[in-house]
Amino acid sequence: MAAAYDDGSYAYYTASTYAKNIISDELSADNLMLRELADCLLINGNCNLLEKYAAMDVSNEASRTGFDLDVGEGLAPNQASTPNYYVGAYSINQGQPFVRVGSDLFGAYNGNDYGKNSHDAVGMQPKLLQQALRNLLNTFLGKCSMIDSSGNAMSARKCSSSSDCSSVSYCSTSADSSVCSAQKVCVCRRAHWHIALDEALNPSPNNVTGLFDFAQDETGLSPLWTEPFWNDIGVYMYRYTESNPGYIVLAAGVVVVGIVYVVTVLTIVGMKKEKLY
Which of 26-30, 32-36, 81-85, 141-145 has the highest mean pLDDT? Predict the structure, then answer.
């Protein structure tokens, strides 16, 4: 928020002070929501708070796209363990958008069959953290629109899914839409996915996710960057042994070389006698 306010025109201290002043209550160390969120992000990556908000985001996406996706990969592999923020390789299970055409899934599609099936759609499967953060941002930023023309706060409509939030009065502009928050109230949509992919890379058309092509019209504004995925490199493990087998192999090699040398010399001598060399 401070960075958005600053926009490169103000000192960081001015921007951070501005942000702190308008959300001073939320920054209080006594704020239970803030403390629970800090625990999720720093101590317990599988906390119930992130699970709850991520699950609601999944429900909202199911209502919007028809994709019945699950909550994405969590921050921690085991229950109540420290979060792991490794991003992983960009693919269908790591946030890359995909296209469903019939029963097939593609990273990109330029054929003629899209739309022939009623289930054809575009979707994505983010990780749990991204799903939870989007619903959190919608929950708290989306409440800012609940003000009527007189400046009075409006009552939030209760909901269990996004279908309950159609045509709410405080999200009625053409550029606005409503969504159900994990607090079970309708809020205005304020958070959107942003695909973090270098401009020089495009999903390979009509192929599975995880495959990319270089963009032909890439302007070269920045160096090419991506997350490497070494799926074809293996590691061979050998049991450590004593040095004696090595000496035996070396001696055997010397003997073989000697035999080959003797055979070669005798062959040349014989060929010279027969005037063949």
Answer: 32-36
Q: How far apart are CA 249 and CA 244, in angstroms?
A: 9
Contact in structure between 183 and 139 (CB atoms under 8 Å)? yes
pLDDT digits (tens, 9 = 90+) for 109-127: 999 999 999 888 888 888 8
The string over 236-267, giving b where at least 16 C-beta atoms fall within 10 Å of a residue's C-beta and e elsewhere, is eeeeeeeeeeeeeeeeeeeeeeeeeeeeeeee
Please write down the HEC assignment for all residues of 134-192.
Answer: HHHHHHHHHHHHCECCCCCECCCCECCCHHHHCCCHHHCCCCCCEEECCCCEEEECCCC
CA 76 to CA 84: how far, in whole Å?
6
DSSP at 219: -
Q: Which helix (H) or strand (E) holds 99?
A: strand 98-101
Tell me the sheet residues that pair with 121: 100
* C-beta of residue 157 within 8 angstroms of C-beta of residue 168: yes
Q: Please state the pTM of the whole predicted model.
A: 0.66
In contact, 69 and 88? CB cutoff 8 Å:
no
Dist CA 180 CA 64 (whole Å): 12
Residues 6+ apart with CB under 8 A from 54: 71, 72, 128, 129, 131, 132, 135
For residue 158, the cross-strand partners are: 185
Angle at 45 between CA 24 and CA 191, to 5 degrees: 55
| Position 22 pLDDT exceeds 60 | no
**Other CB atoms within 10 A of residue 48 CB:** 10
